[in-house]
Write a structure and sequence with these properties.
With 297 residues, the protein is an alpha/beta fold. Helix content is 46%, strand content 10%.
């Protein structure tokens, strides 16, 4: 069976920027630590998993208006002036470089208007005819885990990543992939500006999801004074009913995006040589190209 290794690109380059020393510069003085780190991360994981296909998902819209309309606080804390994402200048200058070097290496870069990379990854996993490994540090993507999809979870580090399969998800988090969205909505996620239900943490959220088959059933039990749900819990849920159902739409990844085919892209050898020299990339780009070729053979 063929294997797709699909990367949450922005997560990787943010991790690279903050995890790789800022002493790496191009010959003309531009920082390239995020560029080199991203290339090395991808090389390491391609070597480990030896996929038949590779893709880098791209945020064409990191904070889609339709999600903000549902939950106005969505990613608000990351907004800079002009409703753009607040990114360190030393990193923002490297993002176009990252896109260029990935393209030179023959890696498809896939985005979709009005959608985040998470939606692209979900749509890739939903349509790919084979095994999909999604590389990310975002737990919301645990909702994609299934028989043919696992998450390469790199929140700790790429070297010490964890492979999240259905059994690992149930054992470690106490929920199934099909209920992960409900669990995430209940506990909230400050990193995305989702407050969750006040007074409900991870353990309580997992217990609620295990007890009630849907959010609707949970709310109905909260409305029923004769239900077995404790009064204090009923009060907490009923105070945030509107939030629950809006947040579920926000957290749920889109799986139906029309995406381009994942055919192999040719390596632009001239661009690889030029970028390696111009950006002072050492062996990071040529190593990635070699690792991709070995994985395909």
């Amino acid at each position: 069976m063929s294997t797709l290794l699909a990367f949450d690109t922005s997560y990787l380059y943010f991790r690279a920027f903050f995890g790789v020393p800022d002493t790496f510069h191009s010959p003309d003085g531009r920082p390239v630590n995020a560029v080199r780190g991203t290339l090395d991360f991808i090389s390491r994981l391609v070597k480990h998993y030896r996929p038949t296909h590779v893709a880098c998902a791209w945020d064409e819209d990191w904070r889609p208006r339709w999600r903000v309309d549902l939950i106005p606080s969505y990613k608000t804390h990351r907004v800079a002036e002009g409703d753009v994402e607040e990114v360190d200048d030393a990193l923002s200058g490297q993002v176009p470089m990252i896109r260029e070097v990935l393209g030179a290496a023959g890696i498809p870069i896939i985005g979709a208007p009005d959608h985040e990379a998470d939606d692209v990854l979900a749509s890739l996993a939903h349509t790919y005819d084979g095994t999909t490994l999604v590389v990310t540090g975002d737990r919301d993507l645990f909702q994609l885990v299934g028989e043919h999809t696992s998450i390469v979870y790199v929140a700790r580090s790429v070297a010490k990543h964890e492979l999240i399969t259905p059994s690992v998800l149930t054992e470690k988090y106490g929920v199934t992939a099909s209920r992960y969205v409900d669990y995430a909505v209940l506990r909230g996620d400050p990193s995305d500006g989702l407050p969750g239900v006040k007074g409900i943490g991870e353990k309580t959220a997992a217990n609620l999801v295990a007890t009630y088959p849907t959010l609707e059933a949970m709310v109905e039990a909260a409305k029923d004074p004769g239900s077995s749900m404790p009064r204090a819990m009923r009060t907490k849920l009923l105070a945030d009913v509107d939030y629950l159902f809006k947040a579920r739409k926000v957290v749920t990844c889109v799986t139906t995006l029309p995406l381009p085919p994942l055919g192999l892209r040719p390596v632009d050898a001239d661009a690889v040589a030029r970028l390696t020299t111009d950006l002072g990339l050492g062996g990071s780009l040529t190593r990635l190209v070699q690792t991709l070729a070995e994985a395909r053979n």
